[in-house]
Amino acid sequence: MRDRVRVVVQGKGRRRWHARRAGLAGALWVAGELAVTVGVVVMLLVVHQVWWTNRQALRAAHEVVRELEEEGGGWAAAVPEEVGEGEPSGEEPVGESSGSGGSGSSGNSGPPRTVKPSPPRASAYGVLRIPRLGVAVPVAQGVDKRSVLDKGYAGHYAGTAQPGAEGNFALAGHRNTHGEPFRYINRLRAGDELIVDVRGKRYVYLVGQTLAETTERDTGVIAPVPRSIVSPGAGYSEPGAYITLTTCTPEYSSKYRLVVWGTLKR
């Protein structure tokens, strides 16, 4: 009798153990399915951000370049403005405010001089060509991410010089995603051409220097006479007609800024 009771109790224990094991297996299965689902969603978001938005912006930018070429360069200026006027920058470019950063580091004094006016914000008015990289990108006024940079454009820092003028024609562009026009500017070498076409006029700059890494607050790189305030040995010391390209570095990060400078070919 005792043995028979003992067997029954043992059977109940075994069934409970199997039930707990089945419950644990079910929970693990559900957790695994959830993890796979989350992984797929994350992967799709990454594909959308890195691949799809890149293709969309690149296609749209190429269309704008084609239209500008057909129109002979785009927007025409009418009324001069003063140096330093313009809107603040977005998150991608150098400095917190491109208007103040572009001119505040120059050390110039006296009354403001008049220059060619800036085109309307977010309206592409010219084309930057980088023959070594096979790049042709629209140039628009301002460096706001949503209305300019995320369209695959190169954004012209407010308060910096216009193409071909004395001073510093400073541009910002994405290195990754959204057309990534400046992805490979680290490959540029001294003497490479940077060509700017604006309303039937062509300005050719020659790459002179590259600053591989600086902080986002190094506003000296877009000053009228560009010179890094973080790495004082990088940049120029004499007035001239310059071009500056800025983008984020390292790739897929916005921790630092990569800078390429060039001078106008006379």
Over all CA atoms, what is the radius of gyration?
A: 28 Å
Q: Kindly give the count of domains.
A: 1
Per CATH, the superfamily is: Sortase
- Identify low-pLDDT runs: 73-91, 96-115
CATH architecture tag: Beta Barrel
The gist of it:
With 266 residues, this protein is α+β, with helices and mostly antiparallel strands. Helix content is 29%, strand content 24%.
Write the layout of secondary structure elements.
Layout: H1 2-71, E1 81-82, H2 98-104, E2 114-115, E3 124-130, E4 135-141, E5 154-156, E6 167-172, E7 193-198, E8 201-214, E9 241-249, E10 256-264
Parallel strand pairs: 4-5, 6-9
Antiparallel strand pairs: 1-2, 3-4, 3-7, 5-6, 7-8, 8-10, 9-10
Structure description:
- The longest helix has 70 residues, at 2-71.
- With 266 residues, this protein is an alpha+beta fold.
- An 8-stranded mixed β-barrel has the order 3-4-5-6-9-10-8-7.
- The N and C termini lie far apart (112 Å).
- The protein has helices at 2-71, 98-104; strands at 81-82, 114-115, 124-130, 135-141, 154-156, 167-172, 193-198, 201-214, 241-249, 256-264.
Keywords:
Sortase, Chain: A, 8-stranded mixed β-barrel, two-stranded antiparallel ribbon, alpha+beta, 24% strand, 266 residues
